[in-house]
């Protein structure tokens, strides 16, 4: 039994497993069991309006509460879930959880838009729009209370097919966002054609912008690019008050990061949001921003 546990533990760490191998089959059955035994957790990280300081939404991030290994972060099983196609089950679970949370939050007086991450496999699924429609039908949740985050690479895998799925989802009223913007390879020609509403600047740029002028310039140009295309822009990796002040000054619409809060179990979110007090960014002077 101990040997098996150890083996499971090490399996999860390998992002690239041979699909069809014994190890891979055993991790896949563990993931199936995780859903049946209710081991997946939906965590939420707040998204803040940087000009007003209000909580405007949250990103749903999955965790696996493993009976032996504790709380497993997504990067230890998402790549595998993508390889095996299990991601479609996980995405459906996250989408429904986010929609239900949005309804619950509204009943508590909070209007929040919930963002959910999708992968290439989801975009290649032509049934996805119909599945989301059926999931939303019995709930009191408008389609525009959900935002789907997609990376550039997921789109560029098969741009034409992704475009057709995204157009369908957008026509249903769902919001669409390009995640980790600036790190993948994407083409501005596609960006122009995609029916997206939001760009999320990757945290690597935001976290470095206070000490690296090039990163600061990339952040500034991305905000301009987004606004010139009529898109709203979110900075992820907001870790300091100074970063908040700088982003607000550059006109960035929303921010998300450890300065505001780490992702938390969904059960804690409403109380957290009700207690949230925005900081006074006017305390950070223009001089200190230039330093
Ligand atoms: P992502 O979608 O870019 O999510 C943002 C990640 O950055 C989260 O990591 C979040 O905890 C982290 N983060 C946010 N603010 C800060 C900050 O200020 N500093 C630092 N150092 N990190 C920050 P997490 O939850 O570990 O998720 C990692 C990635 O796993 C996500 O990146 C996403 O690509 C993937 N992922 C998570 N949940 C799901 C899911 O349900 N479905 C899919 N397809 N992918 C998911
Ligand atoms: Mg994301
Ligand atoms: Mg991201
Ligand atoms: Mg990222």
Automatic annotation (TrEMBL):
Signal peptide: none annotated. It comes from the Bacteria. Residues 24-277 form the EAL domain. This is EAL domain-containing protein. It comes from Pelomonas caseinilytica. The lineage of its organism: Bacteria, Pseudomonadati, Pseudomonadota, Betaproteobacteria, Burkholderiales.
């Amino acid at each position: 039994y101990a040997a098996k546990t150890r083996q499971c533990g090490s399996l999860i760490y390998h992002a690239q497993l041979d699909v069809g191998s014994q190890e891979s089959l055993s991790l896949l059955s563990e993931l199936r069991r995780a859903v049946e035994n209710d081991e997946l957790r939906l965590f939420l990280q707040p998204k803040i309006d940087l000009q007003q300081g209000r909580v405007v939404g949250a990103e749903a991030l999955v965790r696996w509460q493993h009976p032996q290994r504790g709380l497993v972060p997504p990067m230890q099983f998402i790549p595998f879930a993508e390889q095996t196609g299990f991601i479609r089950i996980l995405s459906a679970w996250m989408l429904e959880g986010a929609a239900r949370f949005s309804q619950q939050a509204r009943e508590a007086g909070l209007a929040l838009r919930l963002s959910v991450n999708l992968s290439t496999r989801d975009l290649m699924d032509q049934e996805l729009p119909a599945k989301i429609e059926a999931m939303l039908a019995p709930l009191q949740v408008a389609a525009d209370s959900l935002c789907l985050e997609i990376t550039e690479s997921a789109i560029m895998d098969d741009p034409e097919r992704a475009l057709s799925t995204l157009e369908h989802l957008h026509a249903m009223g769902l919001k669409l966002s390009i995640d980790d913007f600036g790190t993948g390879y994407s083409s501005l020609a596609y960006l122009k054609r995609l029916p997206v509403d939001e760009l999320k600047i990757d945290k690597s740029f935001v976290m470095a912008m206070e000490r690296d002028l090039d990163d600061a310039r990339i952040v500034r140009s991305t905000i301009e690019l987004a606004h010139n295309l009529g898109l709203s822009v979110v900075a992820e990796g907001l870790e300091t008050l100074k970063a908040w002040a700088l982003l607000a000054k550059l006109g960035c619409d929303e921010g998300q990061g450890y300065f505001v809060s780490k992702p938390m179990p969904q059960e804690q979110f409403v109380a957290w949001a009700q207690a949230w007090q925005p900081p006074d960014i006017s305390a950070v002077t223009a001089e200190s921003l230039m330093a």
